[in-house]
């Protein structure tokens, strides 16, 4: 690229002699700082949207060869692929943007479903938990605050309720998922206990990032495809994840299927708890 040529032949950052497009001392790419804006924009698009072939290669392997991408990283073959964190962030951004645009997460899908959210506050007041009456400690106060807020929430007009639920979901779910990732990796590591395959925590984390990236892509598709296809997609995603678990950790089938199932159950329960907690926070603190 002509604009990459360094007029001086020396690195502008550390003044080392250059012998290629990158400085061998500090790693800075040799580029003319006064290159035109269009050129800078082009580089930005290519590098940050990963149109350099890496993203297509990464996505192709992620989708077509379940678990293989994580295995490649585990064996140290990284440079050809998009970094797992970047892949995770890009796919989650895509997913939540589509959800936000389509309004899929929000309004009617959720507002009426959760019995706690639409609790009319009636029968509940009479059947107060006796344990709460006896206990006036911190837990009881927290429980009362939550109940109070839930009742206040129930009295809100439905459009306002929907707005709150929607805001809560779009604000909290991405964060909940992001902070759930390290726990996912812990679960994976526990499930691989004493397996003869090398698996340190970072490997498990990379696997988690890849699996979540696939889930984000699947959820994005579900949001835009008709409902009937959506069901099949969920099934396909579950099978894909099981295959990925097996292949990423080189497990025989007999060792893979129940571990994948256990992982789904553990992680599923944890997510339900975490998202419920996020909902409660939304309701309590609006
Ligand atoms: Zn340098």
Question: In summary, what is this structure?
Answer:
The chain has 286 residues and is mainly alpha-helical. 68% of the residues lie in helices and 0% in strands.
How many strand elements?
0
Uncertain ranges = 1-6, 106-132
State the end-to-end distance. 54 Å
Treating each run of at least 4 consecutive H or I residues as one helix, how many helices? 12
The largest sheet is:
none
CA-based gyration radius: 25 Å
Mean pLDDT: 81
Shape: globular
Which small molecules are bound? Answer: zinc ion
How do the SSEs run, as a string of H and E? HHHHHHHHHHHH
Integer count of domains? 2
Alpha-beta content class = mainly alpha
Task: Give the proportion of residues in helices.
Answer: 55-70%
Strand content: under 5%
Label this structure with key terms:
286 residues, mainly alpha, 0% strand, binds zinc ion
């Amino acid at each position: 690229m002509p604009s990459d040529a360094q007029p001086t032949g020396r690195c502008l950052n550390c003044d080392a002699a250059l012998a290629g497009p990158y400085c061998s001392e500090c790693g800075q790419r040799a580029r003319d700082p006064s290159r035109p804006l269009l050129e800078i924009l082009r580089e930005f698009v290519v590098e940050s949207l990963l149109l350099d072939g890496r993203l297509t290669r990464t996505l192709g392997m992620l989708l077509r060869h379940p678990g293989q991408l994580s295995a490649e990283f585990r064996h140290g073959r990284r440079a050809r692929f998009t970094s797992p964190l970047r892949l995770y962030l890009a796919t989650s951004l895509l997913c939540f943007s589509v959800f936000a645009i389509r309004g899929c997460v929000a309004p009617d899908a959720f507002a009426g479903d959760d019995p706690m959210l639409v609790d009319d506050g009636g029968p509940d007041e009479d059947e107060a938990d006796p344990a709460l009456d006896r206990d006036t400690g911190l837990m009881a106060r927290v429980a009362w605050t939550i109940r109070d807020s839930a009742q206040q929430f129930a009295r809100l007009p439905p459009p306002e309720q929907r707005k709150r639920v929607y805001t809560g979901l779009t604000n909290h779910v991405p964060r909940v998922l992001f902070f759930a990732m390290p726990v996912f990796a812990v679960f994976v590591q526990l499930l691989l206990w004493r397996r003869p395959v090398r698996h340190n925590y970072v490997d498990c984390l990379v696997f988690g990032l890849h699996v979540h990236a696939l889930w984000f892509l699947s959820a994005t598709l579900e949001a835009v495809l008709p409902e009937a296809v959506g069901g099949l997609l969920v099934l396909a995603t579950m099978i894909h994840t099981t295959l990925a678990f097996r292949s990423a950790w080189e497990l025989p089938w007999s060792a893979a299927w129940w571990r994948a199932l256990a992982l789904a159950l553990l992680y599923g329960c944890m997510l339900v708890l975490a998202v419920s907690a996020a909902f409660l926070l939304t309701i309590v603190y609006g």
